[in-house]
């Protein structure tokens, strides 16, 4: 790479003494090709190796966007690949080690925080699979720092989306009374949930009539009880 262009060389320059090369503009995405191959490759193309390289790049991206373990990422990726492609990949332990290093690099350098005034939970750290994990943060200027997280997405077993917990106050103590596994988070889903809860209570000669409900900030669940 120089100040005005990028010189691309064959990856087999050293091992096979291939002298094929070409130049492009400095953009890495859709660059302008300034010169096509100045010299032909001295070897045949290896399409299986190209596929293997794409697979490796894809696996290295997975720790950034998923919570799956390195072993799971590896198994799910290679299971459908032919033997000819698998032979071009590094060994399983080497790939898993690379994925672990990738995951570690995505984490904060120091997992401990001695000063809450400097703690910021934002961007991808406030999300879990593109869902809001951080529900509330009263900020670094607050006299007493309070952060509210929603962890129900992780508790729900597949194929459910979340586990909804109903808590009630009894003798000045809040206790968990119901645990509901749900596939969706729509208003109709929550209306069905509250309807089922009321029917369960009715079967037991219980007729709850709460004066208020404490909920999270999701509008679908806030509006759902209003029909009852």
TrEMBL record:
**Organism field:** Aphis craccivora (Cowpea aphid)
Q: What is this protein called?
A: MULE domain-containing protein
Source taxon at top rank:
Eukaryota
């Amino acid at each position: 790479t120089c100040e005005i262009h990028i010189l691309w060389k064959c990856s087999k320059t050293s091992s096979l003494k291939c002298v094929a090369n070409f130049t492009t503009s400095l953009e890495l995405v859709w660059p302008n090709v300034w010169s096509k191959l100045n010299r032909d490759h001295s070897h045949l193309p290896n399409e299986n190796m190209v596929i293997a390289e794409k697979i490796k790049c894809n696996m290295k991206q997975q720790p950034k966007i998923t919570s799956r373990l390195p072993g799971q990422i590896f198994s799910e990726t290679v299971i459908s690949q032919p033997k000819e492609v698998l032979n071009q990949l590094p060994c399983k332990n080497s790939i898993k080690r690379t994925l672990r290093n990738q995951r570690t690099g995505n984490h904060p350098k120091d997992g401990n925080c001695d000063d809450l005034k400097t703690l910021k939970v934002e961007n991808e750290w406030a999300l879990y699979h593109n869902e809001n994990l951080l529900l509330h943060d009263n900020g670094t200027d607050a006299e007493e720092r309070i952060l509210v997280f929603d962890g129900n997405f992780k508790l729900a077993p597949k194929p459910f989306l979340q586990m909804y917990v109903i808590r009630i106050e009894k003798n000045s103590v809040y206790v968990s009374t119901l645990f509901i596994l749900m596939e969706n988070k729509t208003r109709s889903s929550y209306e069905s949930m509250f309807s089922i809860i009321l029917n369960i209570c009715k079967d037991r000669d219980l007729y709850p009539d709460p004066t208020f409900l404490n909920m999270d900030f999701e509008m679908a669940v806030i509006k759902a009880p209003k029909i009852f």
